[in-house]
Amino acid sequence: MKILVACEYSGIVRDAFIAKGHDAISCDLLPTESPGPHYQGDVRDLLDYPFDMMIAHPPCTHLSVSGARHFKEKRVDGRQYTAVSFFMFLAKSGIKKTCIENPVSIMSSLYSKPTQIIHPWMFGHGETKATCLWLKGLPPLLPTEIMQEREDRIHKMPPSADRSKMRSKTYSGIAKAMAEQWG
Q: Which of the two ends of the chain, N or C, has the fewest CB atoms closer than 10 A to its terminal CB?
């Protein structure tokens, strides 16, 4: 299959699908951290290509309920409207198999409830991090390796210049499950 991994700079999901023999490309405004097919630019430049599947990770900074105390300011200056519009643009793409991934956010009330909520601990990582998946043409992911010991490392990360990048990376166990179950 031809797969677009939108808003991914790490290459983790892209590489999981390539390892299964698929033609996958990541796309982000940032350069990729892992050598491989990557378009550095706006995903809107690629959406007319006939992809079979898209896995999208739109920025959550202005959508996530963890930042709810800033919502009023973000609505006043337009940041939240822009973020919602971009999420909806991806949701309305013509790609038949689509997964949009985001944390618990206002999209559950503005768009629709997510199809599924997963955690890294369901896929071999001992982390607690609720991740919503809005699926079109894809079945929910089945857990692959449930971890009994769990920690809240993501939420306890101290402030740093790279904090948002570290928090946004997809766990390799989730990427592998996507490639195995949807590929």
A: N
